[in-house]
Amino acid sequence: MRASIFALVAGAALGLAACSDGGPSGPNTVTTLEAVSPAAGATGIDPASPIAVRFSGAMGIGMERYVDLHQGDVGGPVVPMACTWSNDRATLTCTPGTHLASGTGYALHVGSGMMDANNRPVDVEGHGTQMGGHRVTGQMMGGMHAGQATGLMGPGWRHAGDAHMGMAFAFETGPSAS
Description:
By secondary structure, this protein is α+β, with helices and mostly antiparallel strands.
């Protein structure tokens, strides 16, 4: 067991050293959305749990502003959160300003126009749909987002090729653990 763990770590280190742009994603690799937590469709989530979004490579500066949490669905009010990046800028962890309400549905919204650390578009759909996410359109949001018209949403929310505005991952909280 110890030998196989060592081989895995050594292999990962060699793979990272071989990348030409200094990052794990290489010069021609598309950075993708890899995981969200809580997972889409999850129920019974502890209302005090943090929200996490993981990408396959380092993300650009300021991309955290294109991740938000809505009470109910993406048409519902935005829940204020404080977010921080991991040292490799691949995982964003967000903590709501207050514990989420027990027995309530929420939707994590990840914008489609996000850019990675090399200023390349990030694919939030490829794995996003496989993880149970749904494409977000302005009609789903009732034409408003955080109190402004969806037409005024910045480029980090909108996909360059069409009008959708990211992926939503719905989950439901359970009773409070405290």
